[in-house]
Design brief:
This protein is mostly helical. It has helices at residues 5-18, 23-36, 39-51, 57-72, 75-88, 94-110, 113-126, 130-146, 151-164, 169-182, 185-198, 202-217, 223-236, 241-253, 257-269, 274-290, 295-305, 314-327.
Length: 329
Amino acid sequence: IRDSSEAASDLAARARVGAPASPAVLFLLESIHSKAGSYAELARLREREIREGVIASEAGWFDLGVMALHRSGDAELAIRAFTEALNLSSVDSASRVVTLRELAAALRRSGDGERLVAVEQERVALETDPTERAAAWYGIALIQEGILDDEEGALASFEKALEQDRGYYPALQGAGRIYHRLGSRDRLLRMHELEAERATSAAERSAAYRRFGELLVVDEERAAEGIAALRKAVELNSDNLLAVACLERALSERRDWIELLDLYELLLEGTEDSERRGSILLQIATIASEHLLDRERAIEALSQVGVFETAGAPEPLRKLAQLLEDAGD
């Protein structure tokens, strides 16, 4: 037996026929299959033991499911085993929550989206922690959105996640994504506003304020709110180029040159890149000279451009010369 696991398995199997209920034989078979890594054989042996009453049914089915899912990779057997364990468990037991979680993992592997949603919905009903419930509803929504192509169902699940935790950021993003596709503008605005309030990083908050502001600036009655939101996005992250472009466009369309000049001053403070600084200084000079008639500010900006190596250097120098000439300097 020590020299051949195959011979040992054969002898143990024969002994099993002669003494089907012998714990010693069962232990020997389990040891042999486990040592050899024959988890499929071990799983079949466990199933026979459960059906013959050698080991406790609920715990036995659960252990079999874990073995099938995590050892042999047999999702179908795992689903069957976890289902049997659920049929034997009490409705509100702690073990039922764990079994449902494992069954959900097996169903994900098998791709059975509809049953996976049903299992997760049962599991979320047993969760007591609001954050865990929010996470569970969020997971359900992703299944409905990504696997079942059920946008309405996904939206309802995202909203249920937010009922548990109004600041659950992944659900805010998910709901906003669907509101955008469905064209639900007012609800989308609220989602982006909540995203901005609840985001944990400056980059995330900046992105949320940008989305919020973009929707508002096209509404004449709320354009000022939109500009404020876009400015907040830029203040949080001056590298958010989408927010910068949207704010530039909105301020230019409103001919709000002072606010636009303030924006460029803010961007100038936030960058050390010479090329970008040169471009910003040119914008400052243009606004100062052409729209605000502030020659001193324009000259100051153009004087700084000369320090930087920019592709547009000749043009700034011509503008500077013209302004100096006009100023009589």
